[in-house]
Design goal:
Elements: H1 7-10, E1 21-24, H2 30-43, E2 51-56, H3 69-78, E3 81-87, H4 91-99, E4 103-104, E5 135-140, E6 149-152, E7 155-159, E8 168-171, E9 175-181, E10 184-187, E11 197-202, E12 206-209, E13 212-215, E14 229-236, E15 239-246
Parallel strand pairs: 1-2, 2-3, 3-4, 5-7, 6-8, 7-9, 8-10, 9-11, 10-12
Antiparallel strand pairs: 11-14, 12-13, 14-15
């Protein structure tokens, strides 16, 4: 009489955490979505690397009509995103998404991307999350002109010359600018909330960490603008905020 081997000898089932890119759909025009994604990849090659993605539909009106999930999934895959789940309160959309092979992820927490005011310099810094595995830092020693963009994928970025207005620096880790920062700086580009931005002369058009951003339309306070400063992400009961403080000698 044959017997089956113990389950533990064949497989085990355990819980696992998987970092996801949240793709927040804001338009039903999938052709426009495809064009915008293609343009982003043309400007930032390698920004997506077949990352698993959550399709978030909470920004769409629930009566906006039917969604062609098969086409949407193909658009994302063609642009190096791998959709695996959907977040929506619309029962019809959820059913159509499941038919297309997506899982339900209504309990997923997505970081808000809203401009926030800086906390005062005396505020306590937030606990720093465990950093992802990063390779050696990328080092730039030439100024970045308007229209230029540099992305340090999977690493920190160290800039030894000016980041001019209209230029953009991105990194999955920290960004250090040992010169004036007058363009855009995006740290933690793939969601690492513990990333920081350091600048010898902080006067950016935009700063962002893990999707939370602040633009020059909301000017920096005098104690940090034009001075050595650092930016970090602080998480509290009211959401995520950028903490901008001077660097003291």
């Amino acid at each position: 009489m044959s017997s089956f081997p113990a389950t533990a000898a064949i497989y085990e089932i355990k819980s696992a955490d998987l970092p996801l890119v949240a793709f927040q759909l804001k338009s039903m025009d999938l052709q426009a979505v495809e064009q915008a994604l293609s343009q982003q990849l043309a400007e930032t090659p390698g920004f997506f690397d077949h990352d698993p993605a959550l399709i978030d539909l909470d920004n769409l009106a629930t009566d906006a009509g039917a969604i062609d999930f098969s086409r949407l999934i193909n658009v994302l895959r063609q642009n190096q995103l791998n959709p695996v789940a959907v977040k929506t309160s619309n029962a019809q959309w959820l059913e159509a998404a499941k038919v297309a092979g997506l899982s339900q992820a209504d309990d997923a927490r997505i970081r808000r991307q809203v401009p926030v005011a800086p906390a005062p310099a005396v505020a306590a810094p937030a606990p720093v999350p465990v950093a992802p595995t990063l390779t050696d830092a990328m080092v730039l020693d030439k100024p970045l002109r308007s229209g230029q963009q540099v992305y340090a994928k999977g690493r920190d970025l160290i800039v030894l010359a000016m980041v001019n207005p209209g230029a953009e620096v991105l990194a999955d880790g920290h960004i250090h600018v040992y010169a004036p920062l007058r363009g855009k700086a995006i740290a933690g580009a793939r969601g690492f909330a513990g990333a920081r931005i350091f600048a010898q002369n902080m006067d950016p058009e935009l700063i962002s960490i893990a999707g939370v951003y602040r633009t020059s339309e909301n000017p920096l306070p005098s104690e940090v603008r034009g001075h050595a400063a650092q930016v970090s992400l602080q998480t509290g009961p009211d959401g995520d905020k950028l903490l901008i403080v001077p660097l003291r000698a």
